[in-house]
Amino acid sequence: MRTTYYRRRRFFIAPLILIALVAFSALAMVLWNALMPVIFHLPLINFWQAAGLLILARLLFGGFGPHRHHGSWYGYSRRQKIRDKISAMSPEERKDFFKKMHAYRHGRYEDFFDKKESGKEDAKSE
Q: How many CB atoms lie within 10 A of CB 50?
């Protein structure tokens, strides 16, 4: 079931990438031909030269890997708060924290919740 979803998604994304490349290349060609010859006395370019310029600019300035915004204020501050909290823990607390996080990631939610709270409820019932 899952593999068919990813196959469909892959076949949906590939044409979108191609359409985006064509659209951005056409836009780059129109903008170049409208501005660059007038401002800098450069020659006109065709569609394939515009596509090549876009790919070259992407290689030089952006890369092709997944983009992670390490400097974004939201992601950085959240990660920094977690790092600060973990560094302030004792080794036992740190071990317990990572054990609980491992349980949570693997779907064992009952192991994630604090056992001390359930122990207090059991003590009250006695």
A: 20
The predicted pLDDT at position 13 comes to 84
Q: 85 and 118 share a domain? A: yes
Q: By three-state DSSP, how is residue 45 classified?
A: coil
| pLDDT tens by residue, 11-68 | 788 888 899 999 999 999 999 999 999 999 999 999 999 999 999 998 888 866 655 5
- Residue 56 sits in which domain range? 2-62
User: What CA dihedral angle connects 70, 74, 80 and 81, to 10 degrees?
Assistant: -170
Question: Is residue 68 included in any domain, yes or no?
Answer: no
Q: Alpha-carbon torsion 53, 54, 55, 56, what sign?
A: positive
Q: How many domains does the chain have?
A: 2
